[in-house]
Amino acid sequence: MVTPEEALPGRETRPFAVSPTHVVLGTPIEGETPEGLETIYVAMGCFWGVERIFWKQPGVWTTAVGYMGGYTPNPTYEETVTGRTGHAETVKVVYDPERTSAELLLKAFWENHDPTTANRQGNDVGTTYRSAIYWTTPEQERAAVATRDAFQKELDDNGYGQITTEIRAAADAGTFWLAEDYHQGYLHKNPGGYCNHGPNGLTCPVGLLSKDGVAAQVDVLPPTGS
Prior knowledge:
Helix content: 10-25%
Strand order of the largest sheet: 7-6-1-3-2-8
Structural class: alpha+beta
Radius of gyration: 17 Å
Shape: globular
Order of helices and strands: EHEHEHEEEHEHEHH
């Protein structure tokens, strides 16, 4: 991981324009969060596939892709993928807690990537692709820890390794910097585009199956030929 002193300097303003409206949901992708909604940030490899997983979740109001957890202000994609900004490719998820919960959203998080491969998802290698949860409420923090511990038991029972996911407050992780416009809603704009996400075959069980019967995801699959 690059140090703050070694990180690229960045810039004071965003060096590109971004459409303010979500291409699928029709909602704003930045600005003030409407009253009653909550925001959580997740990183689990290439953010194209991650965003599609979450814009499909019931109760999600908007999503956006960007860079978080590093040091360089207003980074570009080309800078971030070098690892010299310290950021992870991250998805902002704004949701209605009356319609879903942090626990349900994190169920999708754990079930759709490999949280045991530090700084790697498939062929995407580097700190940019690390697994992370950046929470904004105490309830989200509790859900992150509880679901991590429950999913670790599933991994243990099936002979897999230790979770390496970074869990910390969004305030500590720093600013979420929006990515370039072509990254926003990428797999909607490019349905056959690259995606290495999908069900990993395990179920995250914390408080879910016994309460509402939610099963493991089976409907968020990579595009054919990706």
